[in-house]
Design brief:
heterodimer, A: about 110 residues, mainly alpha, 3 helical TM bundles of succinate and fumarate reductases, elongated, B: about 120 residues
């Protein structure tokens, strides 16, 4: 029961994060296509605009969630022995959490 | 359990339908993109450190070797996004019929290469 629910939740997380990631990606692509930064100042001004900064922070959080579900699926498919699987998943969780904290730190100190 | 079951696992002989190629590539590009994350964060951090950091990111992007990596990244991202959209569409029951699914799988595989070629044009 619990497993079924968590499977459905993972599936939902993968889809909804994907939609946000796609929207944010298209938004930044349009920005770089039509108003690319021409100096450090203009790049920093754009990144630190509150709307962009918040959207970027959310992007990294959802990106890491998306990567967690995807890589978790891969680990569960190929790592058949339980100790190996637990080690892989624990390492993965640790690395992704670390990356998330790093990303937020970059944005907060920008 | 019977001891001798026929085993046929010669990878060069297995024919993968186009949808299978799209599916496994979606998985492989997802893993690749995840491995790119620390490098992306490093570049973002460097670019925001100050005018000097910003300039060194620009000069990193000017290197031919790095450009080829970026090109590979563009292909992987394009494939992952297109295949992901194909997935989302089939979730809402669009394009699940075999004929459409095959056509969209071809579209994803070729579209990703086309986008990579456009990226190459923009990079060089």
């Amino acid at each position: 029961m619990k497993k079924a629910v968590s499977g459905l939740r993972a599936w939902m997380v993968q889809r909804f994060t994907a939609l946000y990631l796609l929207a944010f990606f298209l938004f930044s692509l349009l920005h770089f296509a039509f108003a690319p930064p021409d100096s450090y100042q203009s790049w920093r001004t754009w990144v630190t605009a509150p709307a962009v900064l918040n959207a970027t922070a959310l992007f990294f959080i959802l990106l890491l969630l998306h990567a967690w579900v995807g890589l978790r699926d891969v680990a569960m498919d190929y790592a058949r022995s339980l100790p190996l699987r637990v080690t892989l998943l624990a390492t993965l969780a640790l690395v992704l959490t670390g990356l998330g904290m790093w990303a937020l730190q970059i944005l907060l100190s920008a | 359990m019977k001891g001798r079951r026929p085993v046929f696992f010669d990878l060069t002989q297995i024919e993968m339908p186009v949808g299978a190629v799209t599916s496994i590539t979606h998985r492989v590009t997802g893993i690749l993109l995840a491995f790119c994350l620390p490098y992306l964060l490093y570049l973002l951090q460097l670019s925001l450190q100050g005018p000097d950091g910003y300039k060194s990111v620009i000069s990193i992007f000017d290197r031919a070797g790095f450009k080829s990596l970026v090109l590979f990244f563009i292909w992987a991202l394009a494939h992952h996004l297109l295949a992901g959209v194909r997935h989302l569409l089939s979730d809402i029951d669009t394009g699940s019929r075999l004929h459409t699914a095959r056509a969209s799988a071809w579209f994803v595989n070729c579209g990703a290469v086309a986008i990579a070629l456009l990226g190459a044009g923009a990079l060089w």
